[in-house]
Structure formats: C-alpha cells, structure tokens
Amino acid sequence: MKAYITSIGEKTLNLCKWSLERNGFDVEVIEGDNSLAEKLKTIYEKADSDFLRVDADVIPNRNITPDFLSTFTDKEIWWLQFQTFDWCKQDNTYGGVQFIRKEALPYLRENINNHLNAERPESEMSRIKEFYDPRRFISVQIVTGLHNYKNDTKRVIKTKSRRGQMNNYDFELAQRIDEL
C-alpha cells in the first residue's frame, strides 16, 4: 500500500519514512515550500488506490500497517483519521495520519481547489457533503504515532497561537522533559 508523507523539512522526515517502510508501506515524500493544500492536490491527482497520508512530523508506531488497515472492512467508510500522541500537547490528538480509500478520490479531486487557501485544508475537505451524508469519515481512537517530537516548537507555537489553540497545549512540560 502507498503512503504519502507531506513535508516542509521536518527533522523527523527520515524517521517517519523509515518507520512507514518498516511497517510495510511503499512511501513517497511530497515536500517543498508549497502549501499543504497544494501537496494534497498532488496526492489526490497521483493516487489510484487506497492510501495513507502522514505528516512528516509524525513518527509512526507499529500500530499503523497495511494489515491493520485491512481490518477496517466497512467499505462505506472512505476516510479514517487516527490519533497520535502530540509531544507539545502532552496528550492524544486526532490528525497527522489519514487512511483514504480510492472511493473518496473523485470527491477530493473535485473539491480541493475550493480549499487551496484554507488554514486547515484537510479538515475542510473532510467536511464536504460526500463525507457526512451519509457518514463516510470517521475518527479512530487508536494511537498510530508520536507527533511534534523534536521538531520546530516555535513554528508549532506560532500556528497554535494563530488558531487560538494555545490552551490545548503543554509546551512547558514538553520542554522540561526535553531538558532531562
């Protein structure tokens, strides 16, 4: 199964790639200074079968394998979002690891241009009608990796501040653990 990693040069990119390959995925990295939406558009254009999409600041654990994904047999569910443990949050969170079935691709391709300037284009894409009527997007409470470990904390703080999410994060604890 194909896994696409989206990257803006995160320090964990090579470890993310190695872990996915170790877990049995054929990995392609989509990187550069272009937006996440542009990277998603590239993936949606390239993909022709079910795939995994992972942020480069996620270090996938052994939970996320092609065999594991094959256990999700409900073909009416086209998009599964998994949890990661977010280092800066010091808690579980959704996002960063997405399994998308080929049935979703026509709708993703058709709608991505509407979200090229969105702050969170993947979240916006998950809210299009085809994914909630009927329900075809679900969140799965299984931790599939470590998010934001040893990456650019200043960038994370800037992003979370812009989104009004600072109260959800424990940067102080993460920093104190890093200093041990």
Question: How would you portray this structure in words?
Answer:
It is a single chain. It contains 8 helices and 7 strands; from the N terminus they run βαβαββαββαααβαα. The chain is of the alpha/beta class and 180 residues long. The chain has a 7-stranded mixed β-sheet with strand order 2-1-3-6-5-7-4, with helices on both faces. Helix 1 links the parallel strand 1 and strand 2 (26-31). It is globular.
Structural class: alpha/beta
How much strand content do the residues show?
Answer: 25-35%
What value does the average pLDDT take? 96
Query: Which residue ranges are poorly predicted, with pLDDT under 50 across at least 5 consecutive positions?
Result: none
The share of residues in helices is: 25-40%
Strand order of the largest sheet: 2-1-3-6-5-7-4
Shape: globular
Instruction: Please provide the count of β strands.
Output: 7
Biggest beta sheet summary: 7 strands, mixed
Distance separating the two termini: 39 Å
Number of alpha- plus pi-helical segments: 8
List the main descriptive attributes of the protein structure presented here.
globular, alpha/beta, 180 residues, 7-stranded mixed β-sheet, 8 helices
